Amino acid sequence: MTDVLRRGRASLAFGFFAQGVAFALLVTRIPAIQDRYGVSDALLPAFLAAVPVLAGAGSVATERLVRRARPSRVLRWSQPVVLLSLLGVGAGDRVAVLAVALGVFGLAVGALDASMNMLGVSLQRAYGRSIMLGFHAAYSLGGILGASLAWAGAHWDLALWVSYLPVVVVLLPATLVGSRWYVDGDRGGVAEAPGKGGGGAGVGFRLLLPLCLVMTFAYIGDSTVSNWSAKYLQDVLGSSEQLATVPYNVYMVTTLVGRAVGDFGVRRFGAVAVVRAGAVVAAVGFAVVAGAPGAWVGMLGFTLLGLGLCVLVPQTFAAAGRLATDAGGPGASDAAVARLNVFNYVGFLIGSPLVGALGDAWSYRGAMLVPMVLVLVTVFYARSFDAQPDRYGGGHERPRTADVGRGSNGL
Fold first, then answer.
1. pLDDT in tens, 247-301
2. Residue 212: its pLDDT value, please?
3. What is the largest CA-CA distance in the chain?
C-alpha cells in the first residue's frame, strides 16, 4: 500500500469528521435555531424539508460535474461552503437570512456528501478490502464532538454564533490543507475509455433500485433521530432542554462503535449478514423508543438505533460502487454514488415531515413505529449487498496500487 493511498485515506477520514461536526452542530440546536428566528412549529418542517431537497439538487449536479472535474476538487471547495453557511445560520437575525443560509448549506452538503462517498468507494476499491465503514466512523466521531459542543452551548446559554465561530475558524483551514492529499482512487482520469461508462452509462435505475430503497429507509430512520430526538425527549418524555441534546450524542457514540468494528464484521461474515443484523437491531431500537416510559429508557432505544443503523448507509454506498463498476467501470461508480446519494435526501425529506405530521395528528410515540417497519424491510433486500463475486478476496485479482489515480495535489 503506497504512502499516497495512506495519506488519501487519512485526509478523507478527516473530511468525514469535519462534516460530522458541522451537521451535528446544526441538527442538535434545532430548538435553539427555532427560538432565535421565531419559527413556528407549523413552519419548522418546511425549513427542515428544504435542506434535503436542495441537497438532492446538489448531488444531481455533482454527478454531472465529476464528468469534467475530479471528485476531490468538488469536495475541496464544497466543504468550506458548508462551514461558512453553518456560521450564517448562527449569526443571522431574520427568517430570510436563515432561509438563505440553510439553502446554501443544503446545496453544498449535496455536493460534499456525493463527492466524499465517491472518494471513499474508489479508495476501498484500491485498497481491496472493506474500509468504507471506517470513513463513516470518522463522521460519527465528528458528530459526537459536534453534539458535545452543542450540549455545552445549551448548558452555558451561548449564542449560536458563539458556539459555531470557533469550530469554523479551526475546521475551515484544516480541511483546505487536508484536501491537498485527497486521492481519486483508480479513476486516473476524468474521462473513461469507450464502453466503460465514464458518464454513468450502463448503470440503470433498475440495478440500483433495491439499494435506493435501503438508503431511503435508513435515512428515514436517521432523520428521525437527527431532527426529532431532542424534541421527543423534551416534549414526550419530559426531559430538560440540556438533557434533550444527549440522545443524538448517544446515537453518534454507538454509531461510532458499530462502524469502528463494522469493517471487520464485513470481512468476517459478509455484507449481507451485517446488513440484516443491523436492520433488526435498529427496528428493536425504534420499538424501545416508542414504548419508553421515561427519558433514560428512551436513551436505551437511541443506543440500539445507533448500533443498528450505522452499518446500512456505508454498505449501501459500497455495494452501489461495486455493482456500477462491474457494469460500467470506475466512472460509472461515481455516477451511481451520486444517484444513490439523492435517496439519502429523499429519506430525510420523507422522514422529517412524516414523523412531524404523524406526531401532530396521532402521537409521536406512534410515529416512531413507521421508521421501525421501514427499516425491517431492509432485511428482504439484504441479498443486494452480496459481492457476487467477491472481487476483494478469495483469490480474485485485486486492483494494483500502481494503477491508482493520482491525488488531487498531483502526487
1. 877 888 899 999 999 999 999 999 999 999 999 999 999 999 999 999 889 989 9
2. 94
3. 61
Least confident of 197-206, 240-249, 361-370, 379-388: 197-206
Query: What's the chain's length in residues?
Result: 411
Contact between residue 225 and residue 305 where contact means Cβ atoms under 8 Å apart: yes
All three cell numbers of 57: 439538487
